[in-house]
Automatic annotation (TrEMBL):
<dbReference type="Pfam" id="PF08240">
    <property type="entry name" value="ADH_N"/>
</dbReference>
<dbReference type="InterPro" id="IPR013149">
    <property type="entry name" value="ADH-like_C"/>
</dbReference>
<protein>
    <submittedName>
        <fullName>NADPH2:quinone reductase</fullName>
    </submittedName>
</protein>
<dbReference type="GO" id="GO:0005829">
    <property type="term" value="C:cytosol"/>
</dbReference>
<feature type="domain" description="Enoyl reductase (ER)">
    <location>
        <begin position="20"/>
        <end position="331"/>
    </location>
</feature>
<keyword id="KW-0521">NADP</keyword>
<dbReference type="Pfam" id="PF00107">
    <property type="entry name" value="ADH_zinc_N"/>
</dbReference>
<dbReference type="GO" id="GO:0003960">
    <property type="term" value="F:quinone reductase (NADPH) activity"/>
</dbReference>
<dbReference type="InterPro" id="IPR013154">
    <property type="entry name" value="ADH-like_N"/>
</dbReference>
<dbReference type="GO" id="GO:0070402">
    <property type="term" value="F:NADPH binding"/>
</dbReference>
<dbReference type="InterPro" id="IPR020843">
    <property type="entry name" value="ER"/>
</dbReference>
<keyword id="KW-0560">Oxidoreductase</keyword>
<dbReference type="InterPro" id="IPR036291">
    <property type="entry name" value="NAD(P)-bd_dom_sf"/>
</dbReference>
<dbReference type="InterPro" id="IPR011032">
    <property type="entry name" value="GroES-like_sf"/>
</dbReference>
<dbReference type="InterPro" id="IPR047618">
    <property type="entry name" value="QOR-like"/>
</dbReference>
<dbReference type="GO" id="GO:0035925">
    <property type="term" value="F:mRNA 3'-UTR AU-rich region binding"/>
</dbReference>
């Protein structure tokens, strides 16, 4: 039954009026109306910070219109529900990954895109794990079905996605090679399941990957770095292997001719996105359930290393871009 007592309330949010650096983020009061049909109003308890937020803020990914409330990942408590919503009620703890709107104290969200948080998982962990964890789930389970003995090169191994990936891939029996930018990050990646870690500030990651694999190369490269690791990543893949480019923290991969993939060994390439792997309600629920199971059973431990007040989102963005963070980061409304 709909909550007929709900009224418009005022709450603070981080809004984007113009594209640019972290300084363009504004902490403003906004009006949040009652939920409409199929909607839920959520009081956010924690919001996840991701590099896609930087892409949106800087204009790499442009919004349909501005101003925009940034952020796609969060966890909170249902305040009220709109007409036609079944299975959710005020007081339920929920998590989500949506296109925007998460950098807010209170928000509206489509009920069909929410999942209930198990009692064993706290709000900060849930907010930090949804986008990164479900990304790891599709990368390991569906983009390339990883199995015992699969050889993998994973860039940015000490990041939020990388630390989840290393643990889960180890559980699946893969042989994992990670790249990092410092000795401290190398230690972190090794502690989270990676078999080999390459500090690319000191070593040539192509030569070292070839050495580790006995000259064969890896079955699959997972690359969220982009410009700085291209085309070198291709030289790490064995013939008929797969290059998965799923982000561009250093900038976009430049245009290249398809014949480059042929010359490097008849390689396959894909550019996946979470939206396409969780596009249906069934896919969303199955992906989240697999992630919750991995975390709940101890296969994966989520590191929330960085925490900022929501009002300090600009500082959080600056630290993320400067690679001063490890693990996951949350904003607290």
């Amino acid at each position: 039954m709909a909550d007929t007592q709900s009224t418009t309330i005022n709450a603070h949010a981080i809004r984007l009026h113009d594209y640019g650096g972290p300084e363009v983020l504004r902490y403003e009061e906004v009006a949040v109306p009652p939920p409409g049909p199929g909607e839920v109003r959520i009081a956010n308890r924690a919001v996840g910070l991701n590099f896609i937020d930087v892409y949106q803020r800087s204009g790499v990914y442009k919004a349909a219109s501005l101003p925009l409330v940034l952020g796609g990942e969060g966890a909170g408590v249902v305040e009220s529900v709109g007409e036609g919503v079944a299975g959710l009620a005020p007081g339920d703890r929920v998590a989500y990954v949506l296109g925007d709107g998460a950098y807010a104290q209170v928000r509206l969200a489509p009920a069909a895109r929410l999942v209930k948080i198990p009692e064993t998982i706290d709000d900060k962990t849930a907010a930090a794990m949804m986008l990164k964890g479900m990304t790891v789930q599709y990368l390991l389970r569906r983009t390339y079905p990883v199995s015992p003995g699969t050889t993998i090169l994973f860039h940015a191994a000490a990041g939020g996605v990388g630390l989840i990936f290393g643990q889960w891939a180890r559980h699946l029996g893969a042989v994992t090679i990670g790249t990092v930018s410092s000795p401290a990050k190398a230690e972190l990646a090794l502690a989270h399941g990676f078999d080999h870690v390459i500090d690319y500030s000191r070593e040539d990651f192509v030569a070292r990957t070839r050495e580790i694999t006995g000259g064969k190369g890896v079955d699959v490269v997972y690359d969220s770095v982009g410009k700085d690791t291209f085309p070198a990543s291709l030289d790490c893949v064995k013939p008929r292997g797969l290059w998965v480019t799923f982000g561009q923290s250093s900038g976009m991969v430049p245009p290249f001719p398809p014949t480059l993939l042929s010359s490097k060994g008849s390689l396959f390439m894909t550019r996946p996105s979470l939206a396409h792997y969780t596009g249906t309600r069934e896919d969303l629920v199955e992906t989240a359930a697999d992630l919750f199971s991995a975390v709940g059973s101890g296969i994966v431990t989520i590191r929330v290393d960085n925490e900022y007040p929501l009002a300090d989102a600009a500082r959080a963005h600056a630290d993320l871009e400067a690679r001063r963070t490890t693990g996951s980061t949350v904003l607290i409304p």
